[in-house]
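ok posting inputs for the WQD job
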Amino acid sequence: MAKILVTGGCGYIGSHTIVDLIENGYEVICVDNNSRSNAGILEGIKKITGKSVKNYKVDLCSFDETFAIFQENTDIKGIIHFAAYKAVGESVEQPLMYYENNMASLINLLKCVQEFKTPWFVFSSSCTVYGNPDNSIVTEETPQKPAESPYGATKQMGERILTDFQKQFPASKCILLRYFNPVGAHPSNHIGELPIGRPQNLVPAITQTAIGKIPGMTVHGADYDTRDGSCIRDYIHVSDIAHAHTLAIQYLEQEKSETGTEIFNLGTGNGVSVLEAIQAFEKVSGQKLNYEIGPRRPGDVVAIYANNDKAKTALGWAPKYDLEEMMSTAWKWEVKLKEDEKLFATTPPQLN
Ligand code: WQD
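and the output
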């Protein structure tokens, strides 16, 4: 079975992807310096799959340390690259830290791909690359607008670096996966999201408010030109996102890639407003949520959701979790974290 290197495998989407890869017969190794993740999540992966995944606790910004992993694992067939900083607000406050971390790590990995002739590379990209689109439903061909944050710019640059690299080294094939809004937790409830500090994203803000970890939350604006005034997004279950990575590796393994670098949107294709997401949570949890309507959040896109036809057709991908299941798995995970607070007690340092 082919060996896949997952960078950032102790993170939210990375850990769910490792589970899916193992369940589909792949051998997986992980690289994660745990600066923004918790190695304890590997225990959760073992509870689900029965496998102990080896983690190289290495900073990918160190070329020598990265190269050494490939020297020890010359049979790596594929790389799925998640490891990156991804807090939009933090990226605005510390752009150089974001550019250095997110780009240097990618370039080091690609130098190793070049040296070891690794055939498959899957990149964790984001709908953020579309900026504020003219049309809310975006296809992979929708022109990119200027990124709203340095974080988004690192995703746009990452895609460009990979595209140029692949043209120079055609034996390595690349797939860029543009996630919309990943939410929820694995149905086993052994792994889930571990936000650092006060959650910036909607669903962990909802669940932490409901469990009492934070006193309340704010809906960032209800005066937009949308059906209920709040912003619209395409929320997609993290396990559906994870399975798309396995399908992308299989697509490369079966040499279905017609062009050297292919792009796929990963969203349900359904737009959901902030207020609708809150209503769905209240329904599945039976909890009334303590929130207030506040001012708009700078940089927010009004409405964006995916045309996912290409991923469905080419990858055979079919998202299976609906909004209520996204909310119920997220809530079950939050309840578990509350019941067993020592589970991930050594959480990484707080974001400022
Ligand atoms: C969604 C909506 C907020 C919190 C995120 C990541 C980005 C990328 C895509 C991976 C917005 C509103 C939120 C709150 C709120 N992920 N909201 N109150 O901004 O679409 O982008 O997913 O690549 O890195 O930032 O997601 O969950 O932050 O916000 O009203 O307390 O929820 O204003 O309208 P976003 P989000």
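notes: The chain has a mean pLDDT of 95. Residues 3-339 form a domain with the Rossmann fold fold (CATH 3.40.50.720).
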